[in-house]
Amino acid sequence: MKPITSFYPSVDGNEQEREQFVGYLEELLTRIDELKDPERLTLGDLPAEEDMYKPSDLPIESSSVKKVIEELIELAEGHRFGNHRYVANASPLPNIPSLLGQVMMTLVNGNNLWDVEGTAAARAEVKVTSMLSKIIGYDPEKSGGFTTWGGQGAVFQSLRLAIARQFPDSNEEGVPQNLYAFCSELSHYSLFKSMQAAGIGTNHLIRVKTGDDHAMDPEDLMKKMKEVISNGGVPIYVLASTGTTDTFGIDDVKRVKEICREVEESHNLDPIYLHADSAMGGMYTFFNDYPLVDNPLQFKRDVVKELSHFQEKFRSLKLADSLVFDFHKLGQTPYISSLFLVKDASVFQYVDLNEEETPYVGNRGYGSYHTSYTLECSRMGSSLPIYASLIGLGIEGYQRLLAQYIEVNLAFRRALKSRLPNIAVTNDVSPITTFRLYPGESQWEEEKQGRLTRQEVEDINKLNSRFAEVLGQKRDEIYFGNTSRQRYVTVQGGGERPAIYVQKFFSISPYTTVDCIPEYIDFLERRLEILEKEVLCQS
Prior knowledge:
This protein has 15 helices and twelve strands. By secondary structure, it is of the alpha/beta class. Among the domains are: 4-81; 405-538, Aspartate Aminotransferase, domain 1. A seven-stranded mixed sheet has the order 2-8-7-6-5-3-4, with helices on both faces. Strand 3 (179-184), helix 8 and strand 4 (205-208) form a beta-alpha-beta unit. The radius of gyration is 25 Å and the shape is globular. The termini are far apart.
């Protein structure tokens, strides 16, 4: 029987044990690579549904590491792999520097709660907070930040700060019952969940209408804020989506901030907290200082045109009280690696714990980085893969990658319109293209203008829902995304506006290039033919 220490890395750095560990890693990588096929999206074949989730028994005796590798490889069978065939969602292929950072994170295995326990990650967290503050336009001497569990974590953290900043006693006495938050009707559901968790309640979440650009209507925001105030409510928080999940709609942060100030002044209110949910779009702030006229990286003219729109919008993010970078989206790092960034780090004092509440960490004569203000106690060191990725790619590396996504989407839109006239593109240019199938010629313009009946919209929704199923049947070949709420439209006769169903093309891999576009269109055509035959059989 092997000693139990054989399951652990060496503590003295000896060459023999290191080579053995590296050998295990090499075998794991080799076995994964053997499952890769550039003509398929999955690692190996998709397992049968009935084989996916069978009950398992815990072994009584220890297994060899090779047996562990066998079991891990079996689990990987059928797992999607981020090559050019994955165009469904914001699930990237992590870059090599970030993978090295992830390995480093697990090898040092520090708790990022306190720099004494997580020195490497704490140092990286300070560095990335400073780097990204400068990109945004925050003062790095005043800003603060920490890694958290995605955009959801950032929204919850910011809502918590908003409440505690304005009502410090709420930490002890509970949340006042007349608080309200505001967001776009197309915002991610993270604020909905946060309203539940914070105890404010989802009935106090006010959704603001959006326009054709999928951005929040500032005038509707103003109107709804005043309605809340007239009924005795307190507007405490606004979430501005800067890159919505499905369409990449970008709220006008500057105008939203102006409205908050107008409402504060006219009604003698404390400052309303503004959080920019930049989980999806935050990486495009890397173009904030890019000289578009000189265009040193020689991006194509139509790409530069789109980047100029982004530059104008994302330069305003510095007006927000906080924002988030989801590096495990367009930052191309492993899950989960998100940085929550606040403009003024002094706001953390409103949610920090007293020393007597943390008797075993932080209250020592050593260690200077104790993050007792985070909701997490134990915190993974995900600042390490973020830092490694930032150092590895640099600003220009990210600019080249992000511009490529725009170029690919421009080409995809052109090809889609040229070859499939009964499909309409339904959002502005971004790393995402949403498109909607019609039974005959495109009726998108009529639908946007409210000239279709509710029944017609619902019938088109059903067609697109079925199209999504037909596409998904071959998701091991090419995987497109879809959403049942891309936007809302008015209909003849009025009444509640229905949401519309669309398909999504999300350029998320560096291997997704303009040369791949014909392959995507061919796939759509083949699946569309199957759908049309199915519809004919039913009629």
